[in-house]
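User: Quick sanity check before I run a bigger batch. Here is a single chain. Can you write out its predicted 3D structure?
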Amino acid sequence: MIISSQQIQMVLRQYGVHQTKGVEDRRPVEDSKTGREEVDRAEFSREAATFQKAREAAKKAPEIREDRVREIKEALARGEYSVSARDVAEKMLGRSIVDRLV
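Assistant: Done. Predicted structure follows.
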């Protein structure tokens, strides 16, 4: 379904909104039953707030864990780092499946 800008503007006019720049540009709408002006609002669950905090923490985390990279490089240099062929194969197959699904 395609919704045109004209359709969006029409809906906004119905709700008493004259501009689409942002929430601060919205006018309160008078409730026909009570006669009071009301403004749209949203309430989020605790789970949503927790998810948002976790998401922000993940964004702040470095993509590359320098300490772990350093440990592995040192172990490789000493000849002490080994990965089983089975682990490598599992990761390769898992990645292949994910790539096909996405």
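The chain has two domains: 5-31, 46-101.

User: Great, the batch can go ahead then.
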